[in-house]
Design goal:
Layout: E1 5-10, E2 16-22, E3 25-32, H1 38-53, E4 62-66, H2 72-89, E5 93-96, H3 98-103, E6 112-120, E7 123-131, E8 139-149, H4 150-160, E9 165-168, H5 172-182, E10 187-189, H6 199-212, H7 230-243
Parallel strand pairs: 1-4, 4-5, 6-9, 9-10
Antiparallel strand pairs: 1-2, 2-3, 6-7, 7-8
Length: 244
């Protein structure tokens, strides 16, 4: 039986990333971390990766897509593309938490890992994971993904954890100085290449999910916003103002 070929997709942040994972082998990965609309580059990037790899779309066995948190527009583009491909090809598709995928980049046994994305409005999207100390070195979720104030995150880490915490993700570009000030001697910042969200990590996370649910339907692949899109929030505020 041939090992499942998984397509990973991540469009939840500035980066647009696609990858092909077969078993424990990363066959290909292409990532652009430039300011350009995901709707313009996702399919061309995917088609180029498949062409360069000599793989036809029909050979894909499953799809794993970042479903948030992250950019509302970006994650909708990635999720809708993954759903359409999975439906058209008749293959399973699973939603992957962006923060959980990012945490997969830190393999050290026992490590505390804190992915960080800028959620704007003085908040961050974050979570806290601990890497297992024994095989299979799985990630344990200590703090569920949430949108929260940076100071609240710092307070939780200071009060409940004493060991070093590895911060990873695009949020480091905005908050590195604040992290170092708030958690001196405790915070460890991932280097620049590991701050970018990568489809290979989404595919890796998706592989575990597919083992648990091999027949996952594309209908279950939905965006996970953590909070309402800005347009909905503003509309609700305007509506509330009209009622007063």
């Amino acid at each position: 039986m041939r090992t499942l070929l998984i397509l990973g997709i991540d469009t939840t942040t500035l980066s647009c990333s696609v990858a092909l994972l077969r078993g424990d082998t990363l066959l290909a990965e292409m990532t652009l971390n430039i300011k350009k609309t995901h709707s313009e580059r996702l399919m061309p990037l995917l088609d180029r990766m498949l062409t360069e790899s000599g793989i036809e779309r029909e050979e894909l066995g499953a799809i794993a897509a970042s479903a948030g948190p992250g950019s509302f527009t970006g994650l909708r583009i990635g999720v809708s593309t993954a759903r359409a491909l999975a439906q058209g090809l008749g293959i399973p598709a699973v939603p992957v938490c962006t923060l959980g995928a990012m945490a997969e980049a830190v393999p050290a046994p026992g490590a505390l890992i804190c992915p960080l994305l800028d959620a704007r409005r003085s908040e961050v999207y974050s979570a806290l994971f601990r890497r297992g100390k024994k095989e299979p070195y799985a990630l344990e979720t200590l703090l569920e993904p949430a949108a929260l104030a940076l100071e609240d995150l710092f307070a939780l880490l200071r009060e409940q954890y004493t060991g070093p915490v590895t911060f990873i993700g695009e949020g480091l570009q905005s908050y590195s100085a604040q992290i170092e000030t708030a958690l001196p001697g405790q915070a460890m910042a991932a280097s620049a290449p590991f701050r970018v969200c990568r489809a290979a990590l989404v595919a890796l996370r998706g592989k575990s999910l597919l083992r648990e649910k091999p027949g996952a339907s594309y209908l279950e692949l939905l965006p996970g916003y953590l909070r309402r899109p800005e347009a909905e929030r503003l509309a609700a505020e305007r509506q509330g103002g009209l009622k007063q």
